[in-house]
Amino acid sequence: MIGLKSRTWFSAMVCVALVILTFVVSRTAQGQQADRWYPSRWGANDQRGAANRITPAKVLEAKNLITRGTVYQVGRTYEPGMPMFGTRHYSLRIPQAFKIAGTNQAIYHDDLVSGELGQIGTQFDGLGHLGIGDLFYNGNNRTEFAQADGLTKLGIENVGPLFTRGVLLDIARYKGVAQLPDTYEITAADLRAALQRQNLEIRPGDAVLIHTGWGSLWMKDNTKYGQGSPGIGLGAAQFLVDEEVTLVGADNWGVEVFPNPNTSLGAPVHQLLLARNGIYLHENLNTADLARDSVYEFAYIFVPLPLKGATGSPGSPIAVR
Amino acid sequence: MIGLKSRTWFSAMVCVALVILTFVVSRTAQGQQADRWYPSRWGANDQRGAANRITPAKVLEAKNLITRGTVYQVGRTYEPGMPMFGTRHYSLRIPQAFKIAGTNQAIYHDDLVSGELGQIGTQFDGLGHLGIGDLFYNGNNRTEFAQADGLTKLGIENVGPLFTRGVLLDIARYKGVAQLPDTYEITAADLRAALQRQNLEIRPGDAVLIHTGWGSLWMKDNTKYGQGSPGIGLGAAQFLVDEEVTLVGADNWGVEVFPNPNTSLGAPVHQLLLARNGIYLHENLNTADLARDSVYEFAYIFVPLPLKGATGSPGSPIAVR
Amino acid sequence: MIGLKSRTWFSAMVCVALVILTFVVSRTAQGQQADRWYPSRWGANDQRGAANRITPAKVLEAKNLITRGTVYQVGRTYEPGMPMFGTRHYSLRIPQAFKIAGTNQAIYHDDLVSGELGQIGTQFDGLGHLGIGDLFYNGNNRTEFAQADGLTKLGIENVGPLFTRGVLLDIARYKGVAQLPDTYEITAADLRAALQRQNLEIRPGDAVLIHTGWGSLWMKDNTKYGQGSPGIGLGAAQFLVDEEVTLVGADNWGVEVFPNPNTSLGAPVHQLLLARNGIYLHENLNTADLARDSVYEFAYIFVPLPLKGATGSPGSPIAVR
Amino acid sequence: MIGLKSRTWFSAMVCVALVILTFVVSRTAQGQQADRWYPSRWGANDQRGAANRITPAKVLEAKNLITRGTVYQVGRTYEPGMPMFGTRHYSLRIPQAFKIAGTNQAIYHDDLVSGELGQIGTQFDGLGHLGIGDLFYNGNNRTEFAQADGLTKLGIENVGPLFTRGVLLDIARYKGVAQLPDTYEITAADLRAALQRQNLEIRPGDAVLIHTGWGSLWMKDNTKYGQGSPGIGLGAAQFLVDEEVTLVGADNWGVEVFPNPNTSLGAPVHQLLLARNGIYLHENLNTADLARDSVYEFAYIFVPLPLKGATGSPGSPIAVR
Questions:
Q1: Residue in D89, D95, D148 closest to B89 by CB
Q2: 0.95 cut: is pTM over it?
Q3: CA atoms of C119 and B285, how far apart (whole Å)
Q4: A12–D14: do the CB atoms touch at under 8 Å?
Q5: Using one digit for the tens of pLDDT, what is the confidence trace for C1-59?
Q6: Minimal Cα–Cα distance from D205 to chain C, Å?
Q7: What's the ipTM?
Q8: Do B95 and C93 touch (CB under 8 A)?
Q9: Number of separate helices (H) and strands (E) present in chain B
């Protein structure tokens, strides 16, 4: 334990360092102002992010894409044996039947479900799912809004129904393969080229789905499916940000390429889309039927399961054509 | 213990009774043949029931009702404090955050959910939910298909997306009240009168939603909400069967009147709709916004959460206009 | 459809068969009386089975075995990665911390657990767990007592604390191996020989634990652990029944040999012990420390977790010496 | 935004404050050293706390109290309808029965359990349950050891079996009432007087159970039971700390008086016992039978359910006499 006198001297020395440090920090802060990513463009109190792009006009634009009355279920069935991350679990049980009093012999079954429902199987990532340090979308600090009983901000119940124009980009076909190679990073150039090949454009508020072919491993080779995956990189993600989409989905488990080619980064595309831009992710989709039928433009419809304070949502989006 | 001799005599006596009984039973069986409710009209192997009525043409009919781009969320938020039946439960927890390795400080939250998910809150009853004795839709015997790991037949994953014409019948307004009286039985005449007042007709494949006003008790007076409720009786249900609807929903917990005016019957409307006719029920809806805005005709869109082998589904249907 | 007349004739013919059948059945029933396994020796209303054998005198007998004050924990830790049967699951999560109002900064964690708790990891099988057809211990019919909310009879809460003399039979050492061969059936002769080698006797009310060495595969080779296992066969089980034990435990997943050498039988030892004799099973024990230290006689203490209406119990018995 | 020049000046001013602050802080730190509560007396790496007091000699001391062979179950049954704190839940369901292949018709039931198992019903608080700010027993920081999959330190599996001398202090009888008044603070003087009345002493390593009579409200008046409760205050807790007990239990929900008479404090007794002294709490006990029979000294036996990384444990301790 050092004495009081030497401590006071030590403090004085710290002062000199502090003056210098303050100068440096103030300059650095100026440089970082270009990186200031909140408040969001929808205001400091917004909790819906890019869902705000879905206006009645956008709904009508999407509705007008429905010309055949064909409905594709783009989500997967939840069942034992599906790939799951880490120690997440899924359990469904049918309890003993209940008999209802009466001469008409009514009898019924319930089902009991347990699991990380917003983060297993086909899953929709909400804005409270992933952040940068403690900061999430709109600068919300997780130490304040993440409570045991549910998120008090950015809960999935804020999103509301999504009824918008959907676009499928078949990157596998563009590359001439059934399945993109392991850990292939889809680039902005890939997206542009696929759009050109498919004679399409992306418009603000769209739901953009990426077909990588990786989904064919689902419940066929769960180990390979989960170890890594092709997916969009930061460049492609920035392209989608610039196009002002509402949602990016894919037939892999994380939408983004994993691991990131820059191995010092973990889930940077999640951060770019969710935290910085309020753009949603839809993971573990089944885009095979759309790709097979070359259905590239459709009404994308999804209503997040409104579990109050949840970070994500299970459920199957549909593509209607 | 009676002796062998007296037993043989007893058997002989039983024979006389048996001959008479056989005669009586054979006649009764003839009478019951009019009541033979399976196989279903969609064949002995069908598991989708009235969802089969939603054809591409029906999808287009529904889509053409979308003229304003307004989306109503007709389901309720799942949260602690919502009314629940018996010992069913709902729990959502946000576990400790996970940190992802990397210089970019990615951090994420999961959510852990547990409950009778297909049978709490806004819920969609599948064909494996309720039966008559051991027989369910299409004569399937529950002792065969109801397994601990999930229903091996009639599971909710068989239903598929529902995109159809929706009709709201505001019975409360027709009766000139904000809320129908406790245990009021809505009759076929009520439905016909409301249709006339609203200048509407029901068509095959429709989703018919009933506004009783009972939903205003939700989380306001859970005890009253759950003790009984106004709802459709057998007559109204038969009318909807004859109109060949796909689904009946309401802003109460069981769609049907409870208790049934015939107190010897328990949940007879469930049996008529689900088991005998493959028509789905959508319970605990929030129809107040539709009623307030007099939105009586719309596209009803719902995708049951495809939990393999489940008896029902949570989730929020939407009414798009 | 046959006519009424021929039906009446048919019934008459059935009568002849019936008289004969009645005669045969009455004789067969006499033969089966030797197999009548209920009511139990503790009366028709008993729900505790062989736990009744633990009297205050038995507690004192067990207590007198405690001479060193050494406590062995004979159960295993519950954790992800432990072997589990079929689609059973185990999940533990630590939710976000709760802060308590006050200047003293109290903060706390809960834990959220989900799983087939009475039937995963170290588990104690209650009398409501397994039966013969629909009949369980004391002839209770599962269609009556097995309700969705819990068993209304034979629930684990009826057992009460078990404090009795425990005996470890080290069959592996008797056979001169570290681990009994796959699917080895332990016979009554094996038990007798091991008792002789260990210079011990079994007494009424004892908890008999079997060391097979199979437990060394736990979380080392779960696949092998669960595929089959050495264990007691029907002969050894009958020997233990005759010795009037209260409980049989082992370091394998089912106590009994699996598969049974008579491949037409599934879990027959469970039926003999639980259903016919009210004797409990304790599975997935860790008997390695007892075997290593040659601790063959001890106070066995276990309190089933009193989950009302449960079929079994998790938890770690102790052997005190 | 202030200019760079003024910022540098500002820093200089901060320096002066800093020098003064350093001086003050260094003195204050000296004063607080008396309050330094970690490392624990069992070393900086200890995770078992006062369980370390239970030596083989202590086990033998406890065993010698067993003279009649009477076993009291001091825990409560877990069931729907028991009082629970906040949004914690408990659910048990019996799934559909499983049939095992074979001619012997084996059939079995599982049970599915979900809930905050270590923190509902009769519960044993581990050292990872509650802390002071972010600091828990032995100075462990919760931001390091509290992980989603379980506590990586202070998990309940570290405690091990507890077999020790138990003492019941019947404070209600000492006060001449069946039930202590609402929010009555039990003082050190009360404990001493009760000990004298019961002609007992507390010894190091003991499990001390407090009978308040509050337990008679269990499932009779859950609202009253949970609103507040009589219990020990800081003075009584410090007395028990000084007596070097291992565990304090009571027939109320938090052992300590609630709310604390010093209303600026939340759960201070938990902090004193768990965090500062590694002494465990056992809550929601049923001490009525012991009190009725005047059983004041006994072997207290409890094995925490070893759920890896859990904060507490369910289960029923026993008092053996």
A1: D89
A2: no
A3: 38
A4: no
A5: 344 455 555 555 555 555 455 544 444 444 444 578 999 999 999 999 999 999 999 99
A6: 14
A7: 0.91
A8: yes
A9: 10, 18
